Amino acid sequence: RLYQVPFEMPDCEGESETRTLHLIGDFSAPAEFFVTLGVFSFLYTMAALVLYLRFHSLYGENKKLPFADFCVTVCFAFFWLVAAAAWGKGLTDVKAATRPASLIAAMAVCQGQEVVCNAGTTPAMGLANISVVR
């Protein structure tokens, strides 16, 4: 929800005045889907582990239970692939929206002819990239 993050920037007309810049974009849905699926996968894994270890005889005697387990596992694998792709696209959109060149272009104070604006540093996105690879 980048639109909720305000940035204060100086106003060149008055030294003490500032203007507020809001980013554009809401990329929370792919991240929430990714995290929700991860939580449900964890909970299903714990339930399956209890079933395998505690009720092993029930799992071995019932022929439909292993097939149902297989179907649920295949569904989780498919949705995990979809969630990772969605989060990858969402992260790409977040990177594009927070790129220093994009932020500078959105600032009215940097549009003057004799004004020189530059970014101090590029944001570190290494951990976010790793979250997509997982």
TrEMBL record:
Where is it localised?
Membrane
PANTHER family, per this entry? SYNAPTOPHYSIN, SYNAPTOPHYSIN-LIKE PROTEIN 2
**Which ranges carry the MARVEL domain?**
1-134
Q: What is this protein called?
A: SYPL2 protein
Q: Which family does it belong to?
A: Belongs to the synaptophysin/synaptobrevin family.
Source species? Circaetus pectoralis
Extract one GO cellular component term from the record: synaptic vesicle membrane
Q: Which UniProt keywords apply?
A: Glycoprotein, Membrane, Transmembrane, Transmembrane helix
> What PROSITE patterns does the record point to?
MARVEL (PS51225)
What is the membrane topology listed in the Swiss-Prot or TrEMBL record?
Multi-pass membrane protein
Report the superkingdom from the record: Eukaryota
* Membrane-traversing stretches: 33-55, 67-87
